[in-house]
Amino acid sequence: MNSTPLIELRQVGKRYGSAQAVRDVNLQIDRGEFVAIMGPSGCGKTTTLRMLAGLEVPSEGEILLDGRRINELPAWQRNTPLVWQSLALFPFLNVVENVEFGLKMRGVSSSERRRKSQDWIERLGLSSYATRNVADLSGGQRQRVALARSLITEPPVLLLDEPLSALDAHLSLKMQGELKRLQRELGIAFIYVTHNHSEAFAMADRVVIMGDGQIQQIDAPLQVFNRPASRFVAEFLGGNNIFSTRVVACQDGKVVIRSSEGDFHAMLPPQINVHLGDKLDMVVRADRISLTPQSGWATNEVACSFVSEEFVGSVINGYLETGDGNRIVIQLQAKDLESIDLEVGRKFYASWHPEDCHLMQHLSTSKETVHH
Ligand code: ADP
Ligand code: MG
Q1: Which residue range is the domain that position 246 belongs to?
Q2: 143-147, 215-219, 347-351: lowest mean pLDDT where?
Q3: What separation in Å is there between the alpha carbon of 49 and the centre of ligand 2?
Q4: Are residues 36 and 13 part of one domain?
Q5: Domain final position from 177, 196, 226
Q6: In terms of Cα–Cα distance, which of 233, 232, 234, 278 is closest to 255?
């Protein structure tokens, strides 16, 4: 057993002039692992991937591949290919020539090149296009050529920067399945940057959420979804109701917390130690909230009035406003609409159970004034 991680980033940072694009990134990636990196635009995802690819040199910290420091190792010497949306295929070369390019650069004999490129072309379902010019391929086909071209050098890791963002929704979904299957078959690591939550959650073993150049959370997809580490992550994921609260009572793993919307009951997660008066952020997922015309449905409730609805596939997002002007988002199934009349301005109670509250330590932000 090799216990050295395949890739390790230690305190990695990248500055452009005085701007810090990436800071304090610590991350280990194992062989065969599928890691998705997510975060809002400009948070440093591409920069991180480019440092792994050897296209940028870190300003701080260390990047190790198989335990070896590779900070300054050029891209062509490290076999960590990067596939991105506007793929740099050679437009004047055909599919075979594009796919075998990496082997040619490495001085591999032409017979060996043909054999390997044919193998990869077949694997990626490109056999009928082998001699076609890449300019005459569809977006999905070009994406496959780019994958074949990157994989032919048998890298231990493939870096992907929003590779499907230029494809339409249907094709993107199909490619997601193919990429995941390919990754499993090859048993190599994929580091996959995306801003698309469903893409990341569907494919990844672990998800890294970045914000403001830093890692905000690293966890299994379900863990990130159920237990966001901070308000930032909960907001980024969307579909969450987040309340700022203070602890007013605490006993036997249960707490009563006070918000501007009233008092709520919640379960205290074992890792959080609280005292009376402590600030906690409470997250309740949109799909955990019930909507009823009468009060008294569940322990926690807020009176609110209906504002708008939005159909998202088979579910409906409902938006309501509390007396205090806070927005509540709920998720309904189409069949729920048969029993509930969503008229704008109508009064409802949004309610949820204590077990559905996820509590997070409140991290003060620089925007807040601290009173002593
Ligand atoms: P993301 O991929 O998450 O959208 P990037 O890694 O591309 O974010 O960018 C992170 C930050 O670094 C952004 O503020 C961006 O403007 C800045 N940045 C990226 N590349 C350069 C560069 N070559 N020169 C100067 N600033 C850059
Ligand atoms: Mg980017």
Answers
A1: 239-371
A2: 143-147
A3: 9
A4: yes
A5: 226
A6: 278
pLDDT digits (tens, 9 = 90+) for 160-216: 999 888 888 888 888 899 999 999 999 999 999 998 888 999 999 999 999 999 999
Would the pLDDT of 372 be above 70?
no
Q: Are residues 221 and 262 in the same domain?
A: no
pLDDT of 246 above 80: yes
Q: Which atom of ligand 1 is nearest to the CA of 39?
A: 3
Do 187 and 245 sit in the same domain of this protein? no
Domain assignment present for 174: yes
Alpha helices per DSSP H over the chain:
45-53, 95-99, 101-105, 110-123, 139-151, 169-186, 197-203, 221-226, 231-237
* 236 pLDDT tier (thresholds 50, 70, 90): very high
Residues 269 and 203 in one domain: no
Is 54 contained in some domain?
A: yes
Pick the atom of ligand 1 nearest to 161's CA: 2
| CA 204/CA 199 separation, integer angstroms | 8
Q: Indicate if ligand 1 lies below 6 Å from the C-beta of 42.
A: yes
For residues 225 and 240, give the distance between their C-alpha atoms in angstroms, rounded to a whole number: 10
User: Which residue's CA is the closest to the ligand 1 atom numbered 21?
Assistant: 16
Is residue 259 included in any domain, yes or no?
yes
* Number of domain units in the chain: 2
Ligand nearest to the CA of 214: 1
Q: What are the φ/ψ torsions at residue 371 (nearest 5 degrees)?
A: -100, 135
- Kindly report the protein residue whose alpha carbon is nearest to atom 22 of ligand 1: 16
Residue 111 CA to ligand 1 center (angstroms) comes to 42
| pLDDT of 338 | 82
Residue 343 domain flag: yes
